[in-house]
Amino acid sequence: MPSSIFRPDLLAGQVALVTGGGTGIGAAIARELGELGATVVIASRRAENIEPAAAGLSELLGRTVYGALVDIRDRDRVNALIAEVLDAHGRLDILVNNGGGQFMAPAETISPNGFDKVVANNLTGTWNMTRAAADAWMLQHGGRIINITMLTGRGFPGMAHSVSARAGVEAMTRGLGVEWAPRGIRVNCIAPGYIASSGLKRYPPSLGILEALPSRVPLKRLGRREEIAWMVAYLASPAGDYITGQTLTIAGGSDLWGDLWPVPDPPDLGPAVPEEDPWER
Ligand SMILES: NC(=O)c1ccc[n+]([C@@H]2O[C@H](COP(=O)([O-])OP(=O)(O)OC[C@H]3O[C@@H](n4cnc5c(N)ncnc54)[C@H](OP(=O)(O)O)[C@@H]3O)[C@@H](O)[C@H]2O)c1
Prior knowledge:
The chain has seven helices and seven strands; from the N terminus they run E-H-E-H-E-H-E-H-E-H-E-H-H-E. It is α/β, with parallel strands linked by helices. It has a seven-stranded parallel β-sheet, with helices on both faces. The N and C termini lie far apart (74 Å). NADP nicotinamide-adenine-dinucleotide phosphate binds next to helix 1 and helix 4. The site of NADP nicotinamide-adenine-dinucleotide phosphate has 30 residues, from helix 1 and helix 4.
């Protein structure tokens, strides 16, 4: 199937690695990059995610999408994966750090171990993949790194662990965008808002968040996985050649407005009273 947005040979001859490419947003990114002619490798921890997706994407694209297993927290395995990609395909032009996730939890219920694990998955894992790809290929040959984060600009209640990690990725991206500009590596983030993807299944059903979500978005709908994939393709293509170190938000305006987390009023909350200066009394 051709891309519905870009010309089909836009990324021909290039090699892309997508973490978390077996599910949801990552699988949509893998499909879009494959539709644009890139050789695509998808990688995550669980064979039950990677194998059916690699087979399904291969069938959709009419050529092989390669699957591999990796835990992005495991530096040895990350280095081995990058070596395998280079051995098999000879280059690595595009790295999409999409793998990650968390469970929503009030801050006071997040254990020390839980916090550390979410940071390891969403910040350190991205660093591990980025350094491995840079060291083995991109520092010499250039490349494009695209990190999938989340909305970090306002408070994100229930996500203290993950939003801290993702803000770290965005800060890392700003620094690497500068440091690696002379190496021909462009590094950017895409911050999705609420996307109708597998990750949303992790919201506790009791909170009714899935029912409430569409009305909390100014565009009154959730985002589609393809809408993230199209921006990845844009940044991976020459259209993005003058963009580095940035975070592009794809959220239907929900980064600007709307709240899902009720903040209870105290019982004695009165009306707002404008203050007067002493000489006005
Ligand atoms: N859906 C949304 O509304 C939304 C909004 C903002 C940000 N995001 C972020 O966008 C990304 C994709 O989200 P999604 O909705 O498609 O959710 P998802 O299906 O849960 O995607 C997460 C993917 O990451 C992989 N993964 C998790 N930990 C990993 C690890 N340690 N090593 C390697 N792979 C790992 C998972 O595969 P395995 O279990 O096989 O490892 C899975 O394929 C996530 O980072 C998510 O947090 C999503």
